[in-house]
Structure formats: C-alpha cells, structure tokens
Amino acid sequence: MIFKTAAELGGLIAAGETTAVEVAQAHLERIEQVEGKVNAFLHVAAEGALEQARAVDARRAAGEELGPLAGVPIAHKDVFTTRDMPTTCASKILEGWVPPYDATVTTRLREAGLVILGKTNMDEFAMGSSTENSAYGPTSNPWDLSRIPGGSSGGSSAAVAAYEAPLATGTDTGGSIRQPAAVTGLVGMKPTYGGSSRFGLVAFASSLDTPGPFARNVLDAALLHEAFSGHDPRDSTSISQPVPPVVEAARQADVAGLRVGVVKEFGGDGYQPGVLARFNETVELLESLGAKVVEVSCPSFDYALSSYYLIAPSEASSNLARFDAMRYGLRVGDDGTRSAEEVMALTRAAGFGPEVKRRIILGTYALSSGYYDAYYGKAQQVRTLIARDFEAAFGQVDVLVSPTTPTTAFPIGERADDPMAMYLADLCTIPSNMAGNAAISVPCGLADEDGLPVGLQIMAPVLADDRCYRVGAAVEKALEDRWGGPLLGKAPAL
Amino acid sequence: MTTLIPFDEALAKYSPVLGIETHIELGTASKMFCGCPTEFGGAPNTHVCPVCLGMPGSLPVVNEKAIEYAIRIGLALNCSIAEWCRFARKNYFYPDMPKDFQISQYDEPICFDGYLDVEVEGETYRIGIERAHLEEDTGKSTHVGGATGRIHGASHSLVDYNRAGIPLIEIVTKPIEATEEKAPLVAKAYATELRELVRALGASDVRMEEGSMRCDVNVSLMLKDASEWGTRTETKNVNSLRSVERSVRHEIERQAAILDAGGTILQETRHFHENTGTTSPGRSKSDAQDYRYFPEPDLVPVAPARSWVEEIRQALPELPAARRVRIKQAWSLSDEEFRDVVNAGALDLIEETIAAGASPGAARKWWMNELSRTATTQGVELSALPITAGQVARIQALVDAGELNDKLARKVFEGVLAGEGAPDEVVAARGLKVVSDEGELVAIVDKVIADNADTAQKVRDGKVAAAGALVGAVMKASRGQADAARAREIILERLGQA
Amino acid sequence: MSITRDEVAHLARLSRLALGEEELDHFAVQLDAIVSAVARVQEVAAEDIPPTTHALPITNVFRPDEVQPTLSSAEALSGAPAAEDERFRVPRILEEED
C-alpha cells in the first residue's frame, strides 16, 4: 500500500477497492516503524488523520463527487498554519503554538480531501539547506541516515522518500523544495511566485517564498500542485490567472521539438563530478528524445547567491520581528521587574537558533541607514539583471536546465557551523526565486562516488509551470524505462 | 522648573518656524488591511483577526476605500496624486504594534505637494503640504500599577489591539514660516481647517476627544533676520485644537529662554501636558532611531488610474472655504457673526434648518440663542441636543402661521427637548395655541377691564400707555396664549381709543 | 567591506537579541565573512538598473471596504504568554517611542 503513488491510491479509493481509513492507517503504521530513524515529523496527528479519512469515506459513501486526491495522505510542512495542530516552524519561539486559523494551502488540502498526517520538520523558519537548523533535532536522509535530507523542507522530503506519506507540501524561498527533492530522489516543484497562496505560510522572505509539492513522481506532484494552487484574495501577491495545465502536461510527457537551454554558468569548479556526469547524460537523453539543446549564458546568475543573502535576510529581519514574546509563543525572563524591551531581547535570544539570529543581524545590517543603498539596493538591482537574463534566455529556449544542486546529500554536521559552505547548496536554485519563474527538480540518477540521488532542475518562464511538468515527465519516463522503475526503488530498505 | 520668557519678548527677538504632522483615522467601515470593524469602543480584543494581530502567516490586503479617501483628501489639499506608489515597512519594536513594524509609506506618498489656506484675524496664510500618506494605527496600552495609569512607575501593561490596523492618513506640512507672533494661532487655525476639511469630505468624523486626530508639532526659533533655521523640537500627540496653540506658545517661550541664556536646543521628542500647558522631554534613546524602511513585499504597488482620480475630483463636495463665502453672503453675516456660528458648532444645523423651510434669520436666532443657552447649561454640544433641524423649522413655521408666538414657541422647544415628542405633539399635549377665538378673547378683555376699573378709566381718559398693564393682565389670564397685539386692539376699541 | 564586533553588537540591540559575549564573538567572525562575500553585488549593478522588489509586475490589488468576521477575544488571546481583563498582559513598557 505505502509504495503506491498518490494517483494510484486516489484511484483505488475512488473505485472502492480500499478506503481512506485503510490508507491512512497503513501510513501511520509506517510512520510508527521508521520515525525513530528518520525524524521527519514534528507532530503526527494520528487521531485527526483517521477522522479526516473517515469523513472522506463518508462523503464518498454519500455519493459525493470528490477530487483525484481525496483520501490520499499528505505530510504538511510545519510552516503552514493549521488550527487543529501546532505550528512551530521548528522554532523554540513558537513551541506549542496552535494558530486560530488555517493557511489557504491547508484549507485547500482539506477541501481536496487530502488527509493530513502531521507536520514535518524543517530548518527553523525555513532558513537552511539541511534541516539541521531545527530546534527539535535533525531529520535523516532515508538513503543514508547519516546524511541530510536537504532543507529547509527536509522533513517533507524525508517523509515522502521514506514512504511515510506519498505526498508532502513544502515552501521554496531559495531552493527549499527543489534541493531536498534532489538529494532524496524525489520530484519537487517551485511554482511561479504568486501561483500558490502565501496566506498562512509563516513568512521567511515574502518576495521569494513559494509553496509547492513533493511527490515520488511527476504526475503526483502535478496533481498536488493543482489541488492547492490558484488565486487567493487574501494574498495580495497572488496571481489571478488560472493555474497552468500542469496535470495535462505531466501526462503529455514529451519533448519533441522543444528547445532546451543548458545554463553555462552552472557547472565546473565546486560541482561534484558524479552530479555533472548524471546531468550531462540527462541532457543527452533530452536530445535523443527530440529536444533541441543549446547552451545559454546567464552571466548575472553568478551574483544571485550574494543578492539572495541580502534580500532574504533583510525581509526576514522584518518578518521575524513579531516574535517578541507579547502576543503568542515563548516568553523568557519576565520576572516582574524587567521591561518589555528586555523581555523581548531575552526571549528572542533564547528562542531563535544561531542561523536565524545570523540572518536577522545580517538583514538588519543590510537595511540600516547608510548601508541600504550599498547592500539591499544593489541586491535588488541584481535581481533585475537576473530577471533580464531569464527573459533573454527564454527568448531563445522553452526551458532551461541545470543540476539542481552542486553536490549530493552531505553528512549531517559537515557544514553546520560554516554558513558560507551551507549557502552553496542553493547556488543553482536561487535565480528562479529571484525572478519568480517556475522550476522543478526531478531525479536523474545516482552519483558514482556515493550512490546518492542527483536532481535535474528544469526552469520555465513565469506562468509556464506546465513546461516543467512536461519535460520532467518525459525525462522520468525515459529514465524509469532505463532503470526498470523509480529511482527511489534503489534506496536501501529502512 | 523650566524657565520661560514672556511670549511677546520672545517674538521680538526670534522668528518661529513650525511644522505640523497630523494623523487622522479614516472613516472606513473596515480596517486598512483586514476586514475587522473600525467602530470605536467594543470589548477589548474583539475587533481583531490574525492579520491585525500580526499573527505568523497573516498577510495584509489594502482597503480600496482608504485609498479613495486618501485621494479625496489629497485633492482637497491641492496635492498631486502619485501615478505609482508603494507601501513601506517602518521597523521598530513596540508592544502595541503587532508586527513590530508599521505598514506606512516612505519616499512614495500617495499625495504630495499641495497647500491649505487658513485665515487668522482677517489675514490668509497659505500652509504648504509636503505630503499625505497612508498607514495603520497601533493598539492601545493601559498601564497598570503606577500612579493613575501613567506609564512611569507601572508594573505592567495591558494591550488591546482593537485599534491596531485602523487606517490613518498622515498629513505633513512644509515648514511654516513668517507667521511671527501669530504662530500659535496659525497652527491652531491650520488644525481647525484641516479637521473641517476632512469632515466635509466625509473621509472621517474626526473626533479629537476619541483620539481620531492627533498632531505632532515641530517648533524651532531663529534670530529675526537670520537665514538658517534653529534646532527643532517635536511635541507629540497634541490632542485638541487648543493644545496645538498652547504647545506652540509654550515651546516658543521655553526655547527662547534657553537661547537667551546661551544654551542650545536639543533635537528631541517632547510631550504636551494638558493640565499645565507645558511640554517635557521624551525618553532619550541610546541608539539613534533607525527605522530601516523598505518596500512592503506583501503588498503590490498602488497606481491609481487617472480616470479614477478625476472621478473622485468631480465628486468632491463643497469645501469649507467655499461654503463659508457662500453662507456669509446668503445669510448676510458679518465675519464676527459667522465666527460665532462656527464656534457654536451651529453651521450645519442652521443650514439644515433653512433647508427645512425656515428663514436664515429665524434659524440662526433659535440655534444661537435659545438652543445654545440650553446646550451650555447642560454642558453638551449643540448637535447633541435632542431636537432636529426639521423640528426647529416646524416650530418656526407655526410662528410664521401665527399659531404660536415667540413665548409659546419657547415652551414648545422646552417640551421637545424634554422628550415630550414632536412640536405638533407638544403643542397639542400642552394646549399651546395662540387664542384666536375672537369671542373668547373679548370675554377675557371684558373681565380684565371690569377687574381693573382704575386702569381702564385712565385709558378712557386718554392715557393710552396704561393699556400695556391691561394687555399684561389679558396675557396672564390666558396663560400666555392670547395674541397680545389683537388683545391690545380690542382693549383700545372697548375703551374708546381705537 | 567588513563588519566589526561593535557593529554586530549594535545590530543585535537594534534587532532585540540579547546575545552573550561568546555568541557575539562567534557571529562577528561569521558575519564578517558573509558580508565580505555578499558585497560582490556592488560589482555588477550599474546605476541605471532599476531595483526589483516584486517578482511580478502586479499593481492595484484591493479589497472592498467590508467588515468580515473577527476572532473572539478568547481566540485572540489563546496563544498569549499572559492575559488579564481580556487584554494581552505585557511587562512594563518604557516610554512611547513613536
């Protein structure tokens, strides 16, 4: 049961061959078995999940027409508010906080009949690339428990890769869906910015944050994408155009005649040879499938990382100011004599982890008077240059491709106190956040050095999310034929 | 104790430069960025939602009406309306500010570069408007454990966020120069005119006593004929028109004393104290304030279509200045009479009474005399009296028709104000009607003549002036309901003097 | 470009983080490295490049002026560290800053 795809499970439930309750139970059992090793969840809502499953079965029994994912379980990143479960963003400062409202993504999951199994671990406030920055302990990569599952949505990637859930939600600010998907052998999609609602997504960097799906195959990702995306009047930056035909594109799965651009700037020094080998093979595969491949230069991408590490911390320093011990969450040092100001500073020092503090300080610096123009202002100009590079590139090609990450999953602890090394994990994914366009990571093999998954990143223009799915599905089909099944089948049993 | 220099002495030596920042809560039904009600009062923390409580994950969405009101105010202030502008975050920590940043506008205000003309003692001063921008209000803290709710010495505070997120427009003047000894009056006149303007626009009811309009007043002094401005102080949250005037006066006296003693003015925030009319310094901060403004990423730019701006311009109501000119002329009022009407808060009421059919003179007479006295006695605003303009017009109509005389009309006012019902109901219930039945009146006159034989004889003898006493007796006997003029005629007739 | 320990201490105060001495030492070194690296943005962006603050060019997103359901005070206060008289109870506040 747990090895089935979301589409299959949805079909079996719809056909009455199984029930949502049975499916939920199977996954809850799996969670019980492997959570001790993986630590993907911060909160498992066993009772709540069964209740939701029963409700879906009841609706089905009453003859109600339900969507393709009704009754399918899902792991929900702990960055989305849920009124029946705590929402902590893996931070001490929000420990135990149960929001009085649901995020739009949460509401849409419920409306689609998805059964929320629980909330997944993450880097605190989505800041990180390894899930080591969680206040509640790191998550392990199911491929090798001593390695990171990527981040910040590492709990979600690990849960799906460990068959604890067929689907998961994530958020991608600089690569936080695509990078964990790549290093765990999954499909992970960052929709066009504004294509999925941020209402109820606890903000890290508002102008970059994008909710998106994790799945074990391209079609499942598209089904989930379709289930929770679309215009939301409560998010001013939400786009009003209809969701691109992603499911149709995932079924189309063909690249004949498509122009594919290889980003010249992503490769060479700093890239693991095994990653580049799999990437180059996949490019050749695309060509053999009928795509026209050309090399495209995007010179400003070299500056994307620097720009990102000014813009994201700047927005974060402001977004995280509200965690001040006054209205919700942790309060430390309120002994009746200290002032509110002192209690705020003590609480924030005790409640935030080191990476969050570093970014708050960095962002405060970049926005402060006298430095704004040199840092935040310049970074926003670089953002314009990146958008222009994309525009020029998409004038020549339909999609751009690159490795999703420079390396495979690194060992837990290796980069924990070396922020600059950690930041490099998002080198290839950041440009699409800066420009707001769509990008997906699909598995493209295992690196020879370590036998760990490698991801192919496919980038498409704003609102052309369907192209990511179309190309991703074509690659998936060809590679699975070659491998004799999904890449994840090669992972060691837990 | 702060040393002061008498105002006239200070002004003989120094020229003041003013700047006024006014925050006005807009009269939208819902808040600036969420659907919570803006209604004043309400149990604490009941006009709140995840957005105005700044809960994690919540996002703002701009209230279109607030944009419309801002444009309306901007146009009335002769401002340019931005073709494209953004909101910005103003970052600072404070417990009554739910997100620990305020959504405001920074270098791209929605309205900019306008002016407002104000009149002080017959002279017109043009106050330049630098900008008007939109922002959100904060919550309200109550300080517990200290002396009488003061922040100083309190053990803790209680915060109610009902007010958090109510739309504010902040209107900032350009430096106001060359007002000399009129400076305090000009400041007050500006605040008064601004309040009237915003009220007339229907963009806010501007109740200063509820804190829906607050002024921050900047004052600096320079030696007369100097070319460079002095250091300014900013007096925060001045909450009444009178306080605007007093705070300016006090700062001039205080700063002049410091400068005269060879001291320097600290650029600082000060607070105004209503009871003493003085200001005191705010807390000095170890770190200079750095608000780290940046464009609000959760909101998209506002680019009001020119057609929309024109539509709003066309729909502007008559503005107070134009109205004043029209009314003064139509009612034939002197400047002084007009000022009295305005100060009594009777302008709208009189205008409504006229619209309901009364003549300007009669409408003004009732509101400015009878009703103003009652309001003063009861210590309430004229508009708070339980009588409508329509009712006043109805009473006057009865007078005009000869059914009431002034004396009876006063009794009708008395009845209406006492809650006895509409004018006609009071007339009926109290039996207040001029005695117009000739026979009844003649009978009363005859009885009065019989009862006052001596006086009647004097009249017969030609002392017509003595008839007044008889008329008085007739009025008394009729309990005021007789038509005095007709009674006099009958008396003279009966006594052979007609 | 570089950042000093004193600047980091000032920024920590500005962002309400009561950092210990050791933490400050550690962050000062790391932040100096990060700031030096990200200062690269100054190499490329010419004066005439407009800044991008929003990924997509959307304007004029408004909501109608309609009152929506609110939270009850119990819901509003449900996560409060301390409450009193239906209000959020907070430690004593130093004088108003704005």
Automatic annotation (TrEMBL), chain A:
The entry sums up its family as follows:
Belongs to the amidase family. GatA subfamily.
**Catalytic activity reported:** L-glutamyl-tRNA(Gln) + L-glutamine + ATP + H2O = L-glutaminyl-tRNA(Gln) + L-glutamate + ADP + phosphate + H(+)
Question: Is the Protein biosynthesis keyword given for this protein?
Answer: yes
Self-association and partners:
Heterotrimer of A, B and C subunits.
Known EC number: 6.3.5.7
Alphabetized, the UniProt keywords read: ATP-binding, Ligase, Nucleotide-binding, Protein biosynthesis
Cite the SUPFAM superfamilies for this sequence. Amidase signature (AS) enzymes
Q: List the active site.
A: K77 (charge relay system), S152 (charge relay system), S176 (acyl-ester intermediate)
Q: What is this protein called?
A: Glutamyl-tRNA(Gln) amidotransferase subunit A
What is the purpose of this protein? Answer: Allows the formation of correctly charged Gln-tRNA(Gln) through the transamidation of misacylated Glu-tRNA(Gln) in organisms which lack glutaminyl-tRNA synthetase. The reaction takes place in the presence of glutamine and ATP through an activated gamma-phospho-Glu-tRNA(Gln).
- Domain Amidase per the UniProt entry, residue ranges: 22-468
InterPro entries linked to this entry? Amidase, Amidase_CS, Amidase_dom, AS_sf, GatA
Species annotation: Actinocorallia aurantiaca
Q: What class of enzyme is it?
A: ligase
Automatic annotation (TrEMBL), chain B:
EC identifiers of the protein: 6.3.5.-
Annotated keywords: ATP-binding, Ligase, Nucleotide-binding, Protein biosynthesis
- The highest taxon in the source lineage is Bacteria
Reactions catalysed = L-aspartyl-tRNA(Asn) + L-glutamine + ATP + H2O = L-asparaginyl-tRNA(Asn) + L-glutamate + ADP + phosphate + 2 H(+); L-glutamyl-tRNA(Gln) + L-glutamine + ATP + H2O = L-glutaminyl-tRNA(Gln) + L-glutamate + ADP + phosphate + H(+)
Q: InterPro entries, per this entry?
A: Asn/Gln-tRNA_amidoTrfase_suB/E, Asn/Gln-tRNA_Trfase_suB/E_cat, Asn/Gln_amidotransferase, Asn/Gln_tRNA_amidoTrase-B-like, GatB, GatB_Yqey_C_2, Gln-tRNA_amidoTrfase_suB_CS, Gln_synth/guanido_kin_cat_dom
The record ties this protein, via SUPFAM superfamilies, to: GatB/YqeY motif, Glutamine synthetase/guanido kinase
Give the protein family: Belongs to the GatB/GatE family. GatB subfamily.
NCBIfam families reported in the protein's UniProt record: gatB, PRK05477.1-2, PRK05477.1-3, PRK05477.1-4
Q: How does it assemble?
A: Heterotrimer of A, B and C subunits.
Q: What is this protein called?
A: Aspartyl/glutamyl-tRNA(Asn/Gln) amidotransferase subunit B
UniProtKB/TrEMBL annotation, chain C:
- Keyword Nucleotidyltransferase tagged: no
**Which stretches are annotated as coiled coil?**
none
Q: Which reaction does it catalyse?
A: L-glutamyl-tRNA(Gln) + L-glutamine + ATP + H2O = L-glutaminyl-tRNA(Gln) + L-glutamate + ADP + phosphate + H(+); L-aspartyl-tRNA(Asn) + L-glutamine + ATP + H2O = L-asparaginyl-tRNA(Asn) + L-glutamate + ADP + phosphate + 2 H(+)
Leader sequence range is: none
Q: Where is this region: Disordered?
A: 70-98
Q: Does this UniProt record's set of keywords contain Ligase?
A: yes
Taxonomically, the superkingdom here is Bacteria
Q: Identify the Pfam families for this entry.
A: GatC
Q: Tell me which EC number(s) this protein carries.
A: 6.3.5.-
Q: Note the InterPro entries from the entry.
A: Asp/Glu-ADT_sf_sub_c (IPR036113), GatC (IPR003837)
Q: Where is the composition biased (Basic and acidic residues)?
A: 84-98
UniProt entry keywords in alphabetical sequence: ATP-binding, Ligase, Nucleotide-binding, Protein biosynthesis
- What is the role of the protein in this entry? Allows the formation of correctly charged Asn-tRNA(Asn) or Gln-tRNA(Gln) through the transamidation of misacylated Asp-tRNA(Asn) or Glu-tRNA(Gln) in organisms which lack either or both of asparaginyl-tRNA or glutaminyl-tRNA synthetases. The reaction takes place in the presence of glutamine and ATP through an activated phospho-Asp-tRNA(Asn) or phospho-Glu-tRNA(Gln).
Q: Which PANTHER family match?
A: GLUTAMYL-TRNA(GLN) AMIDOTRANSFERASE SUBUNIT C, MITOCHONDRIAL (PTHR15004:SF0)
Tell me which NCBIfam families the record gives.
Answer: gatC
Q: How does it assemble?
A: Heterotrimer of A, B and C subunits.
Family assignment from sequence similarity = Belongs to the GatC family.
Q: State the name under which the record lists this protein.
A: Aspartyl/glutamyl-tRNA(Asn/Gln) amidotransferase subunit C
Which species? Actinocorallia aurantiaca
